[in-house]
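Reviewer 2 asked us to include a model.

Predict the structure of this chain.
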Amino acid sequence: MSKTFKVPQKGDPGTRLKNQIKGVLFNPFNLLTLIAIVALIVLVVFPLISLIKETLVLDSVAARRAKAEEGTWSLYYWQYLLTGRMAKSMFWSPLQNSLVVSFFSALIAVPMGAILAWLMVRSDIPGKRILSFLIVIAYMTPSWCKAQAWLSIFRNNSGSYPGILYWLGWNVPDWIAYGPVAIVCVLAIHYYAFTYIMLAGSLGTINSELEEMALIQGASKKTIVLKITLPLVMPAFLSATIMTLSKAMGGYSVASYLGTRVKYHTLSTRLHDQISSGMPGVGYAIAILMILMSATFIFANDRIIGTRKSYSTINGKGGRSVDLMLGKWRTPMFILVCLFLLIALIIPIVSLIIESLQITPANGLRPDNFTLHNWIGREEDSYQMINFEPGLFRNVKFTRAVLNTVKLGVLGAIIASFMGQLFGYISVRGRGKWYGKVIDQLVFIPYMIPAVTFSAVYVAMFIQPKLGGLIPSLYGKFILILLICTVKYFPYASKAGSSTMMQISSELEEAGSINGAGFFRRLLFIIFPIAKNGFMSGFILTFISIAKEFDLISLVINDRTATLSYLTFTYTSMSIYPLAAASSLVMIFLISVCYLIAKYLFKADMIKSMS
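Predicted model (C-alpha cells):
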C-alpha cells in the first residue's frame, strides 16, 4: 500500500520554523549573535537570579536563628534587615550614612569638575595641555590610594600611629581624621573627574559662535555661562551628577579605610562584613537594595534627560571653538587650578613618599626615623624594626601581588576588549533590530550595579556548587576574580567597540563578500585590522581600570590571589603604614605609565572614551 506524503504548503508554520532555525545555525552572523546573547544571559542574568534566591533560602546559621530547617524558603533575611532588632544598625543607619556621604560628595565634586571642564575647554587659561593631563592623572590615582594618603596626613594618636600633621603640632580630632568628613573629602577629590570628563566632552562640541553673538549683544560672561553654555551641557551635567551619587554610595574602599575604625558604617561596608563573616543572606539582601537604588538613580537621569527640551550642539554647519577671554581673572584661575592639583595630586603623593621612608610613624619626622628599608631592606634586618617585613623589592608578597595585578589586568583587558569589539559589532550591525537592542540592554546591566555589590552577585552564584555540580564552586580562585572584572567592564568595552565599529562602513564587508570572502575571513582580515587601534586603546584603559580595582574584588580575594590593592589594604589593617604607602606609590606609578602609553602611543582619549 503506497504512503501519501503531505507536501508542505507555502507559509506552513513547520517549514517556516525549520528555515528560521537553519538560518540561525548556518548563518555565521546569526550564530555569533545567538552565542553572544546566551553568554550574556549566563554571565549577567543567571547570577542576579541566584542572588535573589540566596536571600530567600535559609543557610545553617539563619535556620538555627529562625528555628527552621536548612534550605527552607523564608523572608527571614529581609525581616532581619528591615524590621528586626538589628535593623537600625544593620541597614537604616548605614543607609542614612551612605546618602549623606554620596550627597555631599556630589555637592562638592560636581561643581568642581564643571568649573575645571569649562576652564580647560572654553577659556584661555594658560598651560591647558599640562593642566588637563594632570587633572586626568589625579583621577587615575585609585581612590584607596587617596584614602591611604589621607591617613598618612591626618591620623591622630588615638589607637593608631599618628600622621604627619600630628608631628607638625596638630593632633587632628577624630571627626576630621575619620568618618563622614574624611570620606566626603576623599570621594570629592576623586569623583570630580566624572563631571570634568563628561562636560569636557560636551563642551568640546559647542559652537563658540553662540557665545560670541551673546558677547556682541552685551551679555556678561556670567550670563553667557548660565543662559547659554549650561543649558547646552545640562544632559552631561545631570549624567555626571547621577554617576557621582551612584559611585559614592556604592564605594567600599574609602568607607572601609576611613569609616569603620570609628564605627561609621555605610551600606557597602555592612554588605562586605555580612558576606565575609556574618549572615551572607543579609549581605545579599543589602546588595539587591543597592542595585535597586543605583538603577533608580540611572533611570531617573534617563527620564529627566529624555523629557527635557532638546538642545543640539552638533549640526550640519561647520562649527568652531574660540576660547573665552578671562581677562584679569586669567592668573587667579590658573592659581586656583594649581591649588586644586596641589591638594588632589601633589600633597597625597608627597605624604605617601614621606611615610614610605619612615621606620615607623610612631617616631615622627626625626632624621633618624627615615630609611630605605621599606623599599630595599632585607628580611634579616626587618627583625630590628617594627613591621618584621622585608622591603617591597625583596618581598615575596609584593612580587606575587604585582604579578597577580598584571596577570589580572592583562587577561581581563584582553577578554573584555575582545568581547567589547564583538558586542559592539553586533550592536552596530543590528541597530534598530531586536537582537541589537537585547545586546545593548544586557551589556548595560553590570554598569548600574555598584562594584562591591557586583562582586556579591558572583559570590552568591559561585560560593558553592549548584545544579548538581554543573555550576562549580569558584570562590577563592583566580578565575572568579577574572570573571568578575571582565564582566563588570563589558559595558565600557562594548561602548568603545561600538564607537570603533560605527566608523567602519558595511560597504567594506560587502566588497569582501562579493570577492568570495566568508564571514569569519571578513572579520579577521577586514574588520579587526581596521579596529586594532580602538582595540588597543580600549585594552590599555580597561587594564588600568582593572589593575587599580579593590572594591570589585574585595569579597573574593585572598593572600594567594592578592593584588597590589589588596596588599595595601592588608598592610593598612595591620598598621604597617610605611609599606602600605610604598605599595600605593607603586600602584600610582604603574597606572601613570600605562596612561601615558595609552595616550601617546595608542592615542587613547580618556575624555572621549568616558563621555
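The chain has two domains: 91-312+327-370, 374-611. The first helix runs from residue 13 to 26. We have added this to the supplementary material.
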